[in-house]
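User: structure tokens for this one?
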Amino acid sequence: MTLRSSFAALAGKSSYRLLHDVLHRGGTSFPGGLALKIDPAVLTTLAKNYEVIIITGTNGKTLTTNLTVKALRPAFPHILTNPSGSNMMQGIVTAFLTNQKAKSGRHLAVIETDEANVPLISQYVNPKAYVFTNLFRDQLDRYGEIYTTYNKILKGVRMHPDALIIANGDAPIFNSVTLPNKIVYYGFANRPDKIQNAPANTDGLLCPKCHHILRYKELVYGNLGKYFCPHCDFHRPGLTYQVTTIVNQTPQSSTFMINNHKITLHIGGTYNIYNALAAYAVAREMGVLPEDIVHQLSTDDKKVFGRQEVIPLDGKDVTLILVKNPVGLDQVLQMIKTDNEPFSLVVLLNANYADGIDTSWIWDGRFEDLPFERIPAVLTGGERYRDITFRLRVAGVPEEHFDHKENLKDVVTAIKQMPTKHVYVLATYTAVLQLRALLASDGYINGEMK
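Assistant:
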């Protein structure tokens, strides 16, 4: 460790202790940012003795990272990770600064990484594996189209041709480029083949070889499934890890089979089955026994912030769900509409840099499919409440059940007065942070993001 990197690490650790222990603030990115100002290459030193697994993609990074850490625990009790989802360079450096390294055994880091940051992080660490969840249209102002995003990821991957790639085999884009790396694929194989087309407005449907439109023998959602090109030999690769059966799904849980092993995941949504499947694949590739993975993934524990965490609020059960792009939003809507009990709905829309400043994606979510006859109260809010209010009016929300609040405190007051015990709150990233900060200041939750 050089003198410069030693000073950078000391400054970062000291600032974290001040923020976290004295001021009782999270400090997930500032300490890393301070260390980077002193030594831009400090991560090289901090990550030197770690086996690093990088998890990236559009949707599911945070939960996949948390599930992967859970699945690996039986074999790796000391794992460095960034559980709050602070996945830019500063947050990742903070994770390394604040980790208490085990005195013995293998040093493993499981790191969630923003797609655009993959090449930056890859300059300073030596990844053992990259995990690709999916690529969907998201924050076009930052990423561009999905092919541009994938090229950013590949720029980092190409620095490490010996790293294992664990990729969602149902995503055609992850099979579109020949790489020297060993690639292991996971995906769904739970339905009989049925030739079909993806919806017309789906991204990523062109064959990378001949540019004809792909078709599917099994379509899970979005552009994910058992794809093939009817004009050439391009098709989904063989799957090493696969969901063979979905036994039961509710908004709160899913029971399914992976490679003939039954798992009950205590969080709803088909998209979260993909996250668990990725975690299973990583753990198996790292040598964890299937029965140990099943036990870990089937254990219910505290939800990750904003990922279906349930917050008690004066007699209400408020389920807070992050939404940020068309496919993710649509999958959340498909999940909550399966709730058989009446529920209330709140949608909070912001358009800051971390959310994406373009809000047109809200028009791709199928709000029209919601069972409004079982939703006696709908409320909109956030800094762009006018946009989401208009969107829901177009979707057909009955006016007598509909309201909007510009002030977040008024949103919380309205939630307390809603007619149902269960309330779903769908919120963009900064809206989640603002709502949690307000609820923390009122004593309803702990302000730290786990």
